Amino acid sequence: MYAVLGKKEKAFTLINIPHVPDAYHDSESLIPSVLHLHGLKYEPLWENLRSDPLFQNEVRRYEDSYNQGHERLKTWLEEKGMLKE
User: Fold this and answer.
1) φ, ψ at 31 (rounded to 5°)
2) Is 75 inside any structural domain?
3) Which residue range forms the structural domain that includes residue 18?
4) Does residue 52 belong to any structural domain of this protein?
């Protein structure tokens, strides 16, 4: 809601992206939430922030974390013989 109202500083606190790597790189979770990433990229509520370089950087960081999670999952599946080439 803060993003819609133009309150960027408050809106950035809701994204909470600086903590994403710690939250999603534990042994229980292989892939960050695609729903959160999709929301940041496409939900109209974040539209006012999308042109902000800080927001763009944070989304890229989240995407990197998401992609790393996919690579870890792929490696795990390969190691278990569950992924066919």
Assistant:
1) -135, 130
2) yes
3) 8-79
4) yes
